[in-house]
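Progress against Task 2.4 (sequence-to-structure conversion) is shown through the following example record, which the project officer requested during the mid-term review.
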Amino acid sequence: MAALCWAVFDLDTAAAVLCVLLLGLLLHHLRNMARMAAWARQPLGTPVPGSIGVWDYIFACLSRRTRDAQERRELLARNLARFREANQAMPDGVIYLSQHHTIEWMNAAAAGYFGLNAETDLGRAITTLIREPDFVRYMQADDDAGQMEPLILHSQRQDGLSLAIQRIPFGENLEMVLARDITQLERLDMMRRDFVANVSHELKTPLTVVNGFVETLLDGGDEFSLDDRQRYLSLALDQSTRMQHLIEDLLTLSSLQAGSEPAEEDPVDVQALLGSVLHETRVLSGGRHQISLDAGTPASLLGSQKELHSAFSNLASNAVRYTPDGGSIHLRWGVKADGSAEFAVEDSGIGIGAEHIGRLTERFYRVDRGRSRETGGTGLGLAIVKHILTRHQAQLDIRSEPGKGSCFTARFSPKRVHPRA
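Structure tokens generated for the chain above:
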């Protein structure tokens, strides 16, 4: 450019033109530098300005780099959002802590378990928010190996809630606190322990009686008369029969609990079933009670003949066992206007207090243990009834008042009831 100026213009003019051109080029660079500085102050995603010459190439490179950075930023944001959504969807409580044990993030489950606020409690020390002594000691304990055993915490904020809490170190002096609701597991474990203890106790008593009579007869030799032997053997037989009934009920209950398939859909003649139950009830009563039956509308009930017979018979036999001599027992069947049906057993027996009704269908639950053993009950009858009715989409309703008798009603949905002419 300088040579061209010297060739076209004289020396002074060429020098002046060259100065003007250099000044223009300087202003061009200054202007584009100012535009680049202004663009750098704008939010991410602002379009890169255009230009000519070398600045157009520079701006194009910056635009491509900015676009790549923006795409990576959006990818990280999407991954972070999915990560948080996954943590929120977890049934377990999750809390992320800083190196000073302040809360950096928590999911909704953790907030619910510990009574925290996922917005206002961020940045606060977890031990100032959850003040239960066992939890505070657990959080303050050293965990150099990073394998601290979980803490079983029985919450003081929510009655009956049991949590398994574990600290998990990660990153640089960061920690994650996991909380899992084990309330149901503890209840199941308690039920298992109670079940084993109850079965052992129920079998131990009659077995002890049988062993005692057998040992007495063996040790006595010919010292006992024939009548005494008959009486001892009869009592031993009663106790062994009781054990047999208990084992049969346990097998029945186990089979019902293990059965995942729905109940059978065979039509069961209700009137014939009621006649069989009435006969068994009268035999069990031995004439000690006034027993009546209202067979109601003839109908077929879809289900298992064997299971329905067991349920109806258990309800009736319970009425016999807990109704004093001379009392009345009334069996009733009826089809309602909406197509549903009810089988009810009403007695004038000793009745049941309201505090016991909710637990009557638990295995081995007895209102009066001594009386239950005297009447030959195994403590499993109503548990069997409940499982049979559940398999038949039916419900058990219990109404009772001490001294005024009880009424046990099995209610069946319309889809299982088919009235007949």
